[in-house]
Write a structure and sequence with these properties.
It comes from Burkholderia cenocepacia. By secondary structure, the protein is an all-alpha fold. It contains seven helices and no strands.
Length: 159
């Protein structure tokens, strides 16, 4: 196991801080830098794992800073945005249609409709109207007369 250049160590540390798996990080290092690293070697740069317990302070700080920024800022994550999710679903629908996979296409279309209609959020649209679509009217009646109160009660109970 050869010593890794600092740039690769930082890359591994930051990727792991962003919750990438060790196998994904090892593959990314191979693709980005042309350097073969094992998943076990990558795991040494994650201070939350036992293998990373001896990680130097420099890389621990990089890990903690990157993780903190990552957790605060979801705007850099594409699928956190509805437009990106809908675009990916649109592409998947096209591929499913080309391959003749109609059940998958129908499932993806349903998911896209739910996504577009806020089915996956906790936002609710409440629309209230009064009688025949008019505004809601609030009636407040205060009376101290028991006979008057009985008339109002009867009126409310028998419209």
């Amino acid at each position: 196991m050869a010593a890794l250049p600092d740039a690769i160590k930082v890359y591994i540390t930051q990727s792991l801080a962003c919750f990438d798996t060790i196998s994904r990080v090892a593959k990314a290092v191979r693709e980005e830098f042309g350097v073969e690293v094992s998943p076990q070697q990558c795991e040494r740069y994650d201070p939350t794992k036992r293998a990373g317990s001896t990680l130097s302070q420099k890389y621990r700080e990089i890990f903690e800073r990157t993780r903190e920024e990552f957790l605060k800022d979801t705007s850099r994550i594409g699928v956190a945005h509805r437009a990106v999710r809908l675009r990916k679903l649109d592409r998947a629908v096209g591929i499913a249609e080309q391959r003749g996979n109609i059940p998958l296409m129908a499932q993806l279309l349903e998911q896209a409709a739910k996504e577009a209609g806020d089915a996956f959020t906790n936002r609710h649209r409440l629309e209230h109207t009064g009688k025949e679509g008019g505004p809601i009217t609030a009636i407040s009646t205060v009376t101290n007369d028991p006979q008057e109160a009985a008339k109002i009660y009867a009126k409310l109970m028998n419209p």
